[in-house]
Amino acid sequence: MLFPSLFFLLLGCLSSWLVIHLCLVGGLGRGAGAAQPQHHHTHTGVIPRIGGLGIVFGFALTYVLCFLFLDHTDNQSLIHYGLFAGAAASFLLGFVDDFRPLGAKVKLLAQVVIAMIAHECGLSIDRVGVPFTDVIVDLGFFSMGLTVIWIVAIMNLINLIDGLDGLAGGIGLMLMALLAYLAYEGGVAISLILSLGMIGAILGFLFHNFPPAKVYMGDSGAYLIGFVIASLALVNSEKGTVLAALVAPVLALALPIADVAYAIIRRGLKGLPLFRPDQGHIHHCLMRSGLSRQKTVMALYGISLFALVGGLLAFAYQGRYLSIFLGFAFVIILFTLRGQRITPGLVRSICTESLQARRDTRNALYLRDWLIVEAERADTGGHLWTDYRFILKKMGFCRAELIIEGAERSFYLPDTPHADTTRIWQQTHEIGQEVTLRLYAERDHFSERQFGIIADVAAEAWSKASIRWNEINGAPLDFEARAIEPVTCGQQKARNLYRPTY
Questions:
Q1: By three-state DSSP, how is residue 345 classified?
Q2: Is 98 part of any domain?
Q3: pTM over the 0.90 mark
């Protein structure tokens, strides 16, 4: 058993590493598919998002070899075909989005369709066992809905934690190791082999992704890993460990679940869209505390490994030791929060400020979207800066300085204390490479928390407008940049109607 296990693991690792290496040597992904720098990201360079190619190749090779190593009656069921078809569809969905963004609604709809097809192929949650009893509840009509929620949620959880070099890959690797153990204990051969192949494929990817990253997995790799995790958990549950096979991965995903839950609450209080990226995730907080990227990743690996132990305890010994683990985890959380001084007065103050600030935040988001549209019509970078200066004033800033490759543009409002550091808030944003934005606002108009939110939206506005300019004109945005000549009557009309806001 040891030799076949090592064979699939090493094969997945070597094939994944080699495919990604050849892609990097050939320059694949350096163009439209490369991740463009944005101020919410922790990297500063342009890094290709083609890591998913290596992962899917390692997984596909392992799947094909299953037909050689398994009995023909065990590897040709509709469930197994559905597993591979769903994994391939998830990869393709993410791969298209990496090169041509599809939008959140389109991606969610596609994920729901993939999950529904997987359910019809037999990858479904039909029955759930009641903990500590022998009672089995048949879900009936609710099976489809619960299965779709399960698969879509796991796919997006893996994608949402892909914000730091090596983080999503490392957590995915731990989850695959857990699923391999569950498959081994349950005697599910195909799940064990595919888990080992994915472990190898992720390892091959991590050779290129561990800080400092040379490649990202992109949405293609994240959706693929998420779908395989969700599906293999369901395959394992077919052998009788229904509850444990599902609860164990959930416990192992405690870190991303907590991070996403905190992000939803945080954005809701700020009046921001729930799925808007920001720099408030756990790894951002650790890096701001002074940890390097490598130490941040290792710290989060340690937390995930601790959560993985909880997943194992949920499976082993009928979960008898799970309550002890959860109690220990609760004590650790209380110890971590003991210095935060969270009081009812502080909570009440945050909620009151949130209600007062939501209108300003919503206004800033409308102005951001307007600037992005103007980037499609602007004829020069200088004119777009004029429009940007207009929205900064409307957002409430009294002074701003934008520096692009050494060239600087600025504005300030007269009769404001923009030079008195005791009466203004100040914040600096690095937007990609060689683009710096400094923003100032009067303290009488903003709380420190609200100033930070509006300043972040303002920086995002220029970042997204720059990306949109690059997409349309095929060149980076600076103050001297000129738009390409319109090629359609509609584009010519929009250009003729464009008037910069002086």
A1: helix
A2: yes
A3: no
